[in-house]
Amino acid sequence: MTSFEFTWNSNDKPTGKVFARKKTTGSKLPKEKSDRITSEAKTNLAKTSQSTNEIPISRKSIQLENVQVSDETLGYVKRKQKKDKLAIKNVQIESDETSKDVVHKTSNTSYSLFSMRRKEIYVNTDIPGKSVVEKVFSAEKKFSDLEIHKYLVANLEKSGFTTLTKVQEKCIPEILAGKNVLTRSQTGSGKTLAYAVPILNALQSINPRLQRQDGVQAIIVVPTRELALQTHELFGKINTFQWIVVGHLCGGENRKTEKDRLRKGVHVVIGTPGRLLDHISHTTAFTTNNVRCLVLDEADRLLDMGFKKDIVKLVEELDRSKTNAEYDPMSLLKGNKSKEETSEASDEAICSLRNPKSKTRQTILLSATLNKGIAELADFTMKDHVYVDSMDDSYKLNPAHMVIPNTVKQEFIVTYVKHKLFTLSAILLAKAKHKVFVFMATSQMVDYHYDLFRKYLVNMPKNRGQMKIGEVSLLENSDFEDSDEEEEVVLDTEFFKLHGSMDQSKRKEVFSGFRAAKKGVLLCTDVAARGVDVPEADCIIQYTGPQTDEDYLHRVGRTGRAGKSGSALIFLTHEEQEYIARLQDHKVFLKERKPEDFLHHLCVVMEEPDQEKAATALQRRYEAALSKDKDLRRAACFAYSSWSRFYNTYPTKLRSIFNFKNVNLGHYVTSFALKETPSAVAKIVRGQLTTAEPRRLNKKLATHHGSPPIHDRKWNRQYTAAPGGGSIPDHVAPSTLLLSSRPI
Ligand SMILES: Nc1ncnc2c1ncn2[C@@H]1O[C@H](COP(=O)(O)OP(=O)(O)OP(=O)(O)O)[C@@H](O)[C@H]1O
């Protein structure tokens, strides 16, 4: 018998040693012995990696030391080394998971939520770099220092506005001087007051006083109805001049009521582009020849939402009515100045708000981001504008860099797709005392999660903690749902939802309800991403990634307003983590949060000390709810389907990160608490299937790259003709293809 020794060569790290005995004949070791080698190797290595608390990935291959062995023996040893290496790898994975205390280890429950191939988070968050910081408030200037009416100052101060923000300090004097202005300033920096104050001041100074029949003097264009309402409210708050009438026009409102309002006379009209154009074209009482000021607020958003055409039409309409008003045949006959001369003369004095007699229109464009589109819009809508940037004059802002309030703590969380739903639930439990925005991709997603959380997260059965048999929690059993257990509130917060498919009165109600609430969760689409001002909102969650980088900025910008603090968290999957690097290129740096920072909240509400079991139990609860509640299941199917449509039409710039080809659709179905296969969900959405198919997931179904089946071909044609291109996967329901390409 010869004895020899394996040594794990691990760069000065403590070594685990494995001993084996071998017959001189060179025959293979008996099975028990070779098993022992493997198990000893495992044990020693597990001990080593536990003691060093390191992942021994860099360990070199096993080497023989000080041993004379025959070729045969060497062959055996090499085979053994290979086998042991494999064993080591397995131990490494296990020890890695235990030592790092991660959640994603193989669960001993039969449910597979936690048994999956381990994926790494490789994005580097430690790269040196500074985010761009923009001050919000001006150090010295107050509203009382401006040349504006003292009553206006008094009212501003009464409303809590004393010190000027940077953008107000720089912008208001320029607008008061009658100049066309293009302004860039970060979200929540007070751009609305930057134009509202000079407009009201100019209108109050008109002598003799404005009368109702003088018609519209200023038009303010905003991208969403909520923003129109909010801006109207702000004007109402600071307007002390009773004779100046401010009104709003926006889609979804009663046209007739708006017409009546216009007929009575309105001086400042705030509205969304479509409805404004509609009234300009069809309401005779809406005369635009006296319009002396046009404001395009959230200009980047107006362009993003595809309002460019409407704006062009609106501007042309305003120009035409001005020209018609200037056309005076009598004065031409009398040998007065020609029309060109007249307009040249008035162009010289660009002081339309300051000088009531001026015939030129003053234009103000405001945005939180700058791009080529905005520059073109500025060129089209105004002549000789001044550019106002609220960044310190000494700093030259690179347009590629995004400026986000530095009072916002920005974080990201990388989750497995299957874990998304319960991780979001855990975060909502953690943020129960906060005012939270949760951004989702589509209206259907918002509807579904709103119902799911309100019914099955807010309340839990009272005796859920005791309902266990041995290791298995009854919460994981769908029968549990049928019991008439008493329920208790575990999440003491109010849920709201907001998206573009809701009717206007409901949107209004929700928006004011959420603004007034002390705490709450607003599940919403990007309809709430721009301009919406909910001052106490202190947490932003992006459950689905943004479609553009500007969307990221505007979503985050719903918190940290006017110098207040807030936090923002974006959900990413392992496949999407590259987005962090992309944000770093924009000088936006995010810190990492781990799922386990939140999952312990599930232990509390599920009365289950084991995190994995608690998470699994909640997922099971949701799934059981869907089996019982057909409407909810249908909503889940539509939500999933609309998500897949959304994800498959990411703009080119982000498509390599949010790549439909990389997603495991089976896992995504789970993230909607559905037990069906992706194809079955698509069929349910098509209405071809009324009962659920048992779940049959295989790799092919899960990561589908093949061409769609024949019955989908006509949908395929329809789809490829739609904006965004690409071919329709089997799992995308045709009905969702009819949604707008930007379903907000
Ligand atoms: N001078 C000021 N002092 C204190 N608070 C102010 C001042 N000006 C504005 N605010 C407050 O700041 C918040 C943000 O204002 P506003 O909505 O006008 O910002 P914004 O720059 O238009 O943001 P966004 O780009 O997101 O639309 C509001 O709650 C507003 O009341």
Automatic annotation (TrEMBL):
Catalytic activity annotated for this protein?
Answer: ATP + H2O = ADP + phosphate + H(+)
Residue ranges, compositional bias (Basic and acidic residues): 29-39
- Class of the enzyme per the UniProt entry, highest EC level: hydrolase
- The chain positions of domain DEAD-box RNA helicase Q read 141-169
Q: Where do the Helicase C-terminal domain residues begin and end?
A: 423-605
CDD domains this protein is in? Answer: SF2_C_DEAD
| Annotated SUPFAM superfamilies | P-loop containing nucleoside triphosphate hydrolases (SSF52540)
Which keywords describe this protein according to UniProt? ATP-binding, Helicase, Hydrolase, Nucleotide-binding, RNA-binding
Q: Where is this motif: Q motif?
A: 141-169
What biological processes does GO assign it?
regulation of gene expression
| Signal sequence coordinates | none
EC assignment: the record states: 3.6.4.13
- Annotated Polar residues bias: 1-13, 40-52
* One Pfam entry name: Helicase_C
Instruction: Return one GO MF term.
Output: ATP binding
The Helicase ATP-binding domain, residue ranges:
172-388
Q: Which domain of life is it from?
A: Eukaryota
**Alphabetized InterPro entries for the sequence:** DEAD/DEAH_box_helicase_dom, Helicase_ATP-bd, Helicase_C-like, P-loop_NTPase, RNA-helicase_DEAD-box_CS, RNA_helicase_DEAD_Q_motif, SPB4-like_CTE
Q: Which stretches does the entry tag as region Disordered? A: 1-52, 701-744
Q: Which family does the similarity line name?
A: Belongs to the DEAD box helicase family.
What the entry says about domains is: The Q motif is unique to and characteristic of the DEAD box family of RNA helicases and controls ATP binding and hydrolysis.
Q: What does this protein do?
A: RNA helicase.
Return the protein name: ATP-dependent RNA helicase
